Amino acid sequence: MERREALKNIFSLSIAAAVAPLPSFANLSLVEGGVLKQNAQLFQKALLTNPNLQGFVGLKHNISEQVLKVEGAIPADFKGSFYRNGPAIHQRQGQRYTHLFEGDGMVQQFSFTEQGVTHRAKFINTAKFEKEQQAGKFLFSGPDSKLKNSRSVTGPDSINTANTNVLPVNGELWALWEAGSATAIDPKTLNTKGVIDLGKNTHYGSSLKGLAFSAHPKVDPDGTIWNFGSTVTGDIVLYHLNKLGATQKVNILKTNYRGGMLHDFLVTHKHLLIILPSIIKDKTKDTFFGAISFDEQVPLRVLVVDKATLTLKREYNLDPGFAFHFGNAWEDQQGNIRFDASLYPNLDNLHYMSEVMKGKVSHPEQAKTTFFTLYKNGRTTKETIPGVSEFPRIYNHLTGLKNNTLVTLSSVESDVWSDAVRVINTHTGKQDRFTYGKEYLVEEHVVVDSSQKEGSGYLVGTALHVPSKRTCVNIFKANRVSDGPVCRAWLPDAIPLGFHGNFMPT
After folding, report:
1. What is the per-residue DSSP string for 278-323?
2. Omega within 30 of 0 (cis) for the link into 21
3. 452 torsion bin: left (phi>0), alpha (psi -120 to 50), beta (else)
4. Which of the residues 106, 432, 454, 455 has the least number of beta carbons within 10 Å of its own beta carbon?
């Protein structure tokens, strides 16, 4: 009976995902493309005087494999490919998207061998991308960008941009988005293989099609994959997949969440942590991101979910806050839960990513690394450490287990984007930091370590050098970041600023 009821609930959500507007595109009063044309004009004008906007220009074509110029020496034990994903088409036919999150995804591949470093990049051929690429113009309204004569949006995958993350799964890359299906990519050719059907060859059948599969899956040390999806109903879909990417269990968490956006979550060795930020969505507005606002009266809710059953076990209410990203969570011997967040005091940074698409550079309040403890007796504490913090990463083999090392980006001299990478000792609070400087726009750096020994290995990440309009990929020793890169390889041009990625060793 319980299994039948769960399947019924999941099927109902899949129907809702297929028919519900995401968001509503009705009753639009815009002259077709008027706002999007104005966005393009404003951005082009601002670009003439603000070179920092180079990272948001976008691309029109794939990049064929090219050999990069290398400074320094590639470490002998650093072999494999570094993949990154992010929005790369922001503009078509004189029209420009309203929010940075709306652009079509492109996978970047940096391959490291004894011969050197090569790079290639390809757009992810989603159904949306293929139709618009053939037409040479935007055809679909996006979450915030409205077209008066938009083609029908019948469900999330109609406008799936696959633009946020890329995860190695069973010999494939899964390109991930917030609100729809994962898309399979060939890791060698970067060719798009198609949408992942999570219900295939399971008793869930077609009921999982179109459901949100978030951009931030968590992978246990044994390869088990956990994920969630935020739905139009406010419920949360929970996923348990094995290391081969085959669905084991799916359940629905009734949360009464009305914030609209949920980007990341955490796991311990026993639980999932679904962390609901202090945001609300104005349903009267016909935009998605633009309708979301911070509410100081809404607590930051932490839902503790049992991994074995995917059911809610406990809830904690914390002080109001918002986080795009979390680093790690773990439980001590007494059953207390520890986790960290790049915590914002408001939602200004989300809306900054709309302003920058118009060429406006504002100065929103930045996130800081905050450590939380959820005690078994219901008490909670938090501790914030100095410095701007975003894109936290840990050693993969410690996901859900106690970690002493946290890698984040930071900002020291720049107020446009991150300009530094740092390693934090979570036990002592000591920080080891390398500042690229205000001439660089720095992207997420990930840990590469084959020894499974915390503190060893390397960090790898990209940065755009604004004056030369070139992107570089950089390798650091993880235990000596402040010494600077041991190796740097330069592209001849700039590539668009992306979001997340991972490393696949060879």
Report:
1. SEEE-TTSS-SGGGEEE-TTS-EEEEEEETTTTEEEEEEEESS-EE
2. no
3. left
4. 455
In this predicted model, which residue has the larger pLDDT, 270 or 1?
270
Residue 412 and residue 461 in contact, taking contact as beta carbons nearer than 8 Å: no
pLDDT digits (tens, 9 = 90+) for 476-502: 999 999 999 999 999 999 999 999 999
Can you tell me the mean pLDDT for 438-443?
97
**Sheet containing strand 311-318, strands side by side:** 266-267, 271-276, 300-306, 311-318
- Residue 13, classed as helix, strand or coil, is helix
Cβ–Cβ < 8 Å for 341, 326: yes
DSSP state of 129: H
Distance separating alpha carbons of residues 503 and 425, to the nearest angstrom: 23
Tell me the average pLDDT across 323-340.
98
Burial 455-477 (b: 16+ CB within 10 A, else e): eebbbbbbbbbbeeebbbbbbbe
pLDDT the model gives residue 325: 98
Neighbouring C-beta atoms of residue 376, cutoff 10 Å: 12
Give 233-267 as a DSSP string. TS-EEEEEE-TTS-EEEEEEE------S-----EE
19 by Cβ neighbours in 10 Å (0-12 / 13-18 / 19+) ranks as exposed
- Supply the DSSP string of 368-389, one letter for each residue: EEEEEEE-TTS-EEEEEEEEE-
Q: State the amino acid at position 28 in one-letter form.
A: L
* Distance, CA of 124 to chain centre: 16
User: Do the Cβ atoms of 435 and 388 come closer than 8 Å?
Assistant: no
For each of the domains in the chain, give its residue range(s) and CATH number, in order of start: 2-505 (2.130.10.10)
| Cβ-based burial of 234 (10 A; exposed 0-12, middle 13-18, buried ≥19) | middle
258 vs 463: CA distance, rounded Å: 36
Residue 473 phi/psi, 5° resolution? -110, 140
The pLDDT score that the predictor gives to residue 332 is 97
| Of 62, 61, 44, the residue nearest 53 (C-alpha) | 44
Contact 166, 83 (CB under 8 A): yes
Q: Residue 280's CB: how many other CB atoms inside 10 A?
A: 18
* Cα–Cα distance list, 33 to 40, 94, 97, 140, 354 (Å): 10, 9, 10, 11, 16
Q: Give how far Cα 237 sits from Cα of 6, 9, 227, 231, 267, Å.
A: 11, 10, 8, 7, 15
Q: Identify which of 39, 48, 152, 143 has the alpha carbon closest to the alpha carbon of residue 90.
A: 39
CA 445/CA 408 separation, integer angstroms: 8
How far is C-alpha 218 from the chain's CA centre?
12
For 362, the token pair is: 């504002």
What are residue 428's phi and psi, to 5 degrees? Answer: -100, -20
Torsion of CA 360, 363, 369, 371, to 10 degrees: -110
